[in-house]
Structure formats: structure tokens, C-alpha cells
Design a protein that fits this description.
Layout (H helix, E strand, L loop, with lengths): L7 E6 L4 H11 L4 E7 L13 H10 L7 E4 L20 H22 L8 E6 L15 H24 L3 E7 L13 H4 L3 H12 L9 E4 L8
Parallel strand pairs: 1-2, 1-3, 3-4, 4-5, 5-6
Helix pairs in contact: 1-6, 2-3, 3-4
Length: 231
């Protein structure tokens, strides 16, 4: 039996994206979920990683709606209108590196800092979407420098935070979660429509993992299938 209680309250961060909105839809139809709140850059309790002050402000404005037993952060970036993932060293540039680290590492790190305070100290699960390509040990193809590095850095932030919280909030679990390839805006330039899974299927798989995690799983890097991934 997992740590997540029934009933539970859920908060989805990045709820305007494909995965985030699918999580909201899934949980709204789940009888065990008493309440699901979705936030994004244009919502009530707005959060925008380009405006870091909104991270703390958003968390504080949601405090009265807590505690939450489940928090899922789905915000992340792989490409933009201006650039695509780097294929070689020659493609590296400061602007892309800075933006990727801001969205995939710094923003999520500050989200863990402020939003972990909204977790139920008796039954709290917080998942942050990472990516298997952020695994240093599993890197066999190279390329995608800033995306790989920003996700690897995120994994270290999460692992370190999980060690601290194990001392102060032993019933709170932090998880890095790999969603796999999902048919979404993020994956479309990479044949996402052909090889990606349906978003609702993907979030169903991920939720199944989250509802079965235990205290011993805190600080783990898990795949949507439940597999423990190498750092």
C-alpha cells in the first residue's frame, strides 16, 4: 500500500500543458481525489519561471487551500521557437543554456523549496517531471547538451532535498518522474505524434506509480512504468 491516502487533495503545476492538463482531467474523474487545483502562468495563483518571484507568491497564495497530499510539477522545456536541442558542441550557446537551466532546474528547484511546504506532513507525495535522457549513466547517444544537463542538475536538487526532508518530514516523498515519450507540444518535432503515447494513457501510468510509492522511495528517479532509473 502506498503513502498517498484516500481521499487526497492534488495540485498540478503547469496545468496548461499537455501532460499537466491531462493530469487535471484524470484526477477530476478519480473518486479518491477530493480536490484538484491546476496552476500555470495565466491562472489564478499564477506561476511563471521567467518571473521567479511568482513561485513563492503562488505557493503562499495557495496555503489556505492546503495541505495537499499530492503535488505534481509538469513544467519543462526541450525546445523553443528560436532553437532546437544541440546536436554537437559547436551548437552550444549561453542563451539556450541559461533558458534551459532556468526552466528545467532553477524553477523546479524553487518550486520544491516553496511548494513542499504545502504538502501534508503525514501523507505527502511531490513528483517533478524529469527525463531519462538526464541520466548520466544511461547517456549513450550524446547530443541534447543543455536539456540533458539541466535535467541531471534537477535530479541532484531533488535527491538532495529528499535527504533533508527525510530528517524533518519523514512522511513526505520527493520523486523524479520520467513520463516517457508523450504526444505533446514538447515531442512533436521529434515524431511525437507517431511514437508518443496518448497523454491520458501516460498520466494514468504515472499516477499508478505515484499512488504506490512509499517512504523508502523518496529521492528515487522512476519511470512511468515504475522502473527505477540510474542517475
Amino acid at each position: 500500500m502506498g503513502l498517498l491516502p484516500k481521499p487526497f487533495n492534488a495540485l498540478i503545476i503547469g496545468a496548461s500543458g499537455t501532460i499537466g492538463s491531462s493530469f487535471v482531467k484524470l484526477l477530476e474523474s478519480n473518486p479518491a481525489c477530493s480536490k484538484v487545483v491546476g496552476i500555470h502562468r495565466n491562472s489564478t495563483h499564477a506561476i511563471d519561471y521567467n518571473l521567479p518571484e511568482t513561485i513563492e507568491a503562488s505557493a503562499k497564495s495557495l496555503a489556505s487551500q492546503g495541505p495537499f497530499q499530492l503535488i505534481i510539477n509538469t513544467i519543462g522545456a526541450l525546445h523553443s521557437k528560436e532553437w532546437m536541442p544541440e546536436k554537437k558542441l559547436e551548437d552550444l550557446n549561453q542563451a539556450q543554456l541559461a533558458e534551459m537551466f532556468n526552466t528545467n532546474t532553477i524553477g523546479p528547484a524553487l518550486t520544491i523549496k516553496y511548494f513542499s511546504k504545502l504538502l501534508d506532513p503525514q501523507h505527502g507525495v511531490m513528483a517533478t517531471l524529469s527525463a531519462k535522457v538526464g541520466s548520466i549513466e544511461d547517456n549513450r547517444l550524446g547530443g541534447w547538451y543543455s536539456y540533458r544537463a539541466s535535467k541531471a542538475a534537477l535530479n541532484m536538487i531533488l535527491k538532495t532535498a529528499s535527504i533533508e526532508l527525510a530528517r524533518t518530514k519523514p512522511n513526505v516523498v520527493l520523486i523524479a518522474l520520467h513520463p516517457g515519450t508523450v504526444n505533446s507540444r514538447l515531442s512533436q518535432p521529434f515524431r511525437g505524434q507517431q511514437i508518443g503515447r496518448d497523454p491520458l494513457e501516460a498520466v494514468s501510468d504515472m499516477f499508478h506509480v505515484l499512488e504506490n510509492v512509499n517512504k523508502e522511495d523518496s529521492g528515487s528517479f522512476l519511470s512511468y512504468s515504475g522502473e527505477k532509473l540510474p542517475w
